[in-house]
Design brief:
elongated
């Protein structure tokens, strides 16, 4: 058994698999949303709010992945 601490660069693949299809779908959706804001351009306050919302969603998913990869065995 390897007790070395996991880092963001070397996450445990088993814990990332446990994130599941829902997490992957949400992450992909947030990235598509971010991409669409740039595709249509940033011209109004609403565009910046859309970008902020999509970025916050992506960052939340990223932190979920990082916290899952650092969880102790048997915890979530």
């Amino acid at each position: 058994m390897n007790d070395a601490p996991k880092t963001a660069i070397d996450p445990d693949p088993r814990s990332l698999r446990s994130l599941g299809v829902a997490w992957a779908g949400q992450t992909l959706a947030s990235l598509c949303w971010i991409g669409s804001v740039f595709a249509y351009g940033l011209s109004d306050l609403g565009d910046y709010l859309q970008l902020s919302a999509a970025s916050a969603w992506f960052i939340a998913n990223l932190f979920t992945a990082l916290s899952t990869s650092h969880a102790e065995p048997g915890t979530k």
